TrEMBL record:
Domain of life assignment: Bacteria
GO MF annotation: an example: ATP phosphoribosyltransferase activity
Pfam families given in the database record: HisG
ATP phosphoribosyltransferase catalytic domain ranges (all copies): 54-226
Protein name, as recorded: ATP phosphoribosyltransferase
Transmembrane segments: none
Keyword field contains Transferase: yes
Enzyme Commission identifier(s): 2.4.2.17
GO cellular component terms attached to this protein's record: cytoplasm
Pathway the protein contributes to: Amino-acid biosynthesis; L-histidine biosynthesis; L-histidine from 5-phospho-alpha-D-ribose 1-diphosphate: step 1/9
Lineage: Bacteria, Pseudomonadati, Pseudomonadota, Alphaproteobacteria, Rhodobacterales
InterPro entries: ATP_PRibTrfase_cat, ATP_PRibTrfase_HisG
Length: 228
């Protein structure tokens, strides 16, 4: 059996089901509302694994699922060696979101990451501690800031309501996902002009490490032909 992991809740679930449906493959939740059991209609040899978008990268990397749907951001953040562990099979055209670096709108002299670097040095001199950037995307933000030449900062972990950390005075800047931009605007934050860290969308990934026999390989080829 080829195991296909799809989000069982959250913002990617419904559109994932619709995406497969348009390609003649029906994914169904079975059992009660609260039971995470599923079935697949329209193709043989594929079983459905329902899980959260955030768990799909780990399951693919462990080879417990052969295919999985999740955002580019979660794969790149959670799998340091993602290119060796997974392969993108299809960009699905929904779940678009940008991971961006944002600072208070009132910081009129800070428009670029270079300006942030200067502001960070000044901040440390004035306050005696490093400028804090709140995020849940630790790896992606660190890599981005290293490439941008910004060093004088501290990451603060924020697993939700990240834009609120500036008003709450637990951080001076944030790095988070944005789609409409409403949350950033409502919290008086602006994106740095060169502050796009990653453009993400829902993507169908193939595990490079999951075990397969010849039958599985042929089911996988057939499934990929149908959807890509
Ligand atoms: N406006 C948005 N805010 C946050 N994530 C978004 C947005 N639009 C698309 N996404 C994408 O959705 C995915 C996360 O989905 P979701 O928040 O449903 O997953 P999750 O955090 O694993 O869910 P849960 O923890 O509720 O199970 C990420 O890949 C993210 O890039
Ligand atoms: O640009 P927007 O359309 O306003 O969307 C962006 C917001 O959506 C997400 O939060 P989510 O709703 O997942 O809540 P969270 O803060 O608990 O992560 C993300 O973390 C941003 O806060």
């Amino acid at each position: 059996m080829i195991k296909l992991g799809v989000p069982s809740k959250g913002r990617l679930m419904e559109k994932t089901f619709q995406w497969f449906d348009r390609r003649g493959i029906t994914l169904m939740r079975t059992g009660s509302d609260r039971e995470y059991a599923g079935a697949v209609d329209g193709i043989d040899g594929v079983s459905l694994v329902l899980l959260s978008a955030g768990e799909v990268p780990r399951e693919l990397a462990a080879g417990r699922i052969h295919l999985g749907v999740t955002g580019t951001d979660l794969i790149h953040e959670k799998l340091p060696l993602w290119e060796q562990q997974v392969e993108p099979m299809a960009e699905m055209g929904f779940g678009h979101a940008d991971l961006v670096l944002a600072v208070p709108q009132g910081w009129v002299d800070v428009d670029l990451t270079d300006d942030l670097d200067a502001a960070a040095a000044a901040f440390r001199a004035a306050h005696g501690h490093r400028l804090r950037i709140a995020t849940k995307y630790h790896r992606l933000v660190r890599d981005f800031l290293r490439d941008a030449g910004v060093a004088d900062y501290a990451l603060v972990d924020s697993q939700g309501a990240t834009e609120g950390t500036v008003a709450n005075e637990t951080a001076e800047a944030i790095a988070d996902i944005t789609s409409s931009g409403d949350t950033l605007r409502a919290n008086h934050l602006k994106i740095l002009s060169d502050g796009l860290i990653l453009a993400s969308q829902a993507t169908l990934w193939r595990s490079r490490v999951a075990d397969m026999d010849d039958d599985d390989r042929s089911v996988l080829r057939h499934l990929i032909d149908r959807v890509s």
